[in-house]
ABC transporter ATP-binding protein
Amino acid sequence: MSIEVGLKKINEETVKRSYVFWPVYKWILSHLRPFLLKVVMFIFCGLVATVIELAIPKLIQHFIDYTLLNKQISQYIKVLGYLFVLVIIMLCFQIGSNILERFIREESSKEVQFKILAQLRRLGIPYFEKTNVGEIISIFNNEVQIFQELFRRCIPDIVKYSIIVIVSVYFMLTIDYRLTLIMIPSFLLYYLLGPYFERKATFYGQQLVENKTRVSDKLYESLSSLRELRAYSAEEWDLARNERYITAWVSNAVAHDLFAFMRGSYRRFTYHLGGIGVFLLGVYLIKNEQLSLGGFVAFLFYYFFTMQKLTAIVTRFTEQKLLVTQIERLYQFMSLSPEVPLKRENTVKRGMIKGDFRLIDLDFQYNADRKILSSITVDLPKGKRTAIVGSSGSGKTTIVKLLSRFYKPTNGSIFLDGKDIMDYSEEDLRESIGYFFQEFYLFGGTIKENILFGRPSATEQEVIDAGKHAYCHEFIMELPDQYNSVIGERGIKLSGGQRQRIAVARLFLKNPSIIILDEATSALDTVSENEVKKSLDMLYKGRTIIAIAHRLSTIRDYDHIIVMDNGRVVETGDYQTLLERKQVLYELVSNEGTDKNGGSS
Ligand SMILES: Nc1ncnc2c1ncn2[C@@H]1O[C@H](COP(=O)(O)OP(=O)(O)OP(=O)(O)O)[C@@H](O)[C@H]1O
């Protein structure tokens, strides 16, 4: 059976899938490893609390059989005293068990969140380029929640209830083994249909949560697009669209409640049926003096308590199976290996990378079906300004991604200061390279925090010096809170040029030996561009600069130009020489001039 939910058909078979269950389950449980001692303590506390809780009916049995029948008042007070002490001890162990359970749950889910972040970092740019942000966010929202759910309910409940059932069956056996055997047919009767109702109720329960999220997403979309809907007279269309999702939600809710009710009713039916058996046999045994009255009363308590917990274990197992299947995507994500293996040991002294790049016979493709770069052999000298130019799609950005080691070349090598770039540690490389893009991220905090991002350990004076070098000190000092001014989400309260100068200040603080730019200032007006250029010129001094340039007017003063076409390097040299050669760069410059003049020159 399947139900139509929105545009996606969700099949119930997903609930039954078990081929991934064990590896995923083992992986989930591996998160308990750091808290092994606490897990043992949790089980111990649970065991003690359960033994005490279940010893109480035994005490009642004693009370009925000896104290009450023999009318011994002193015994009566003694039993009450024991009971009181036992309850206090039991409560202490229950509190301990609850605290440990909560600690284990929260710590393990915190750890999984850290692991997701670390894995995202490990997978790096290739993963972000292949996966949409929605999917990544959903891993955090849904899968982490499922993970918490497993540690909140399923795993601890299965452990707790199992302890209860084992201890309780032991006490039942000490009363009468024949009565205890009645549990078997009673449980088998439950097992006949119970898991079916469990599966259905759990499945619809999960769908209910997903549909609820979908309905609120759609409502949010409808509210955000009210103007467009009215302008296009599309209210009816929107209503019909929402109705579909709401109908799916409602039918899910009805199905869930129905199966949950049937699950509960069937559960009660089976163990009450067994209860009748216990009554009949119990009365018979009392009549034949094979069972005491107190023993019978205590047994009744154990029977109902055990049956309830036993059937609850089945419920938790069903829920757990579904949740584990749903967490499979997170498991697969955590099992991914980065395209570029990360090297950890630092092999060069801090600040010693100078930026002398040599690319030898380099080929690259993102996917097996298409070559993006072919036979690239080129030098990008240290301490110089190199510009990479060429038509759109010729592979400029791809080269820069390879220089940054975001990707691994398909063939050939990249040497940095004479050493294969793959042999540098991640830390060495990231410390040595700074980036400057048209768009970059400013955090919603203060200007100081945003500059400090370049080197969090920098002093206040270093931040101010960086601000001065980047020509942003003056405008910062004019703001009401100066360096402590809050700049709004993504730096919304600043102009484009001001934001870019903050980014330059950040780079001053980071102090990398190599700076990679992607047509950094093309989105600015002339005044802002000149201001940013002034700050960039300060930054460039003594560093290796590699720039992707779209406007050829910006590369005149570069030392070295690499001209690309269709994934190949077609020309290299300085600007003047290449122009005089009147080949590809000359063509590009001429075309740019033509475009600017509207094709008239
Ligand atoms: N992550 C990716 N996966 C697959 N193909 C990609 C990816 N990034 C870029 N490409 C392809 O590689 C080719 C070169 O792209 P690249 O971005 O390097 O060109 P570019 O010269 O920088 O272009 P532009 O000047 O337009 O930015 C293009 O055909 C592009 O479609």
Q: What stands out?
A: Residues 177-290 form one domain. Residues 73-130 form the longest helix (58 residues). The two ends are 70 Å apart (CA to CA).
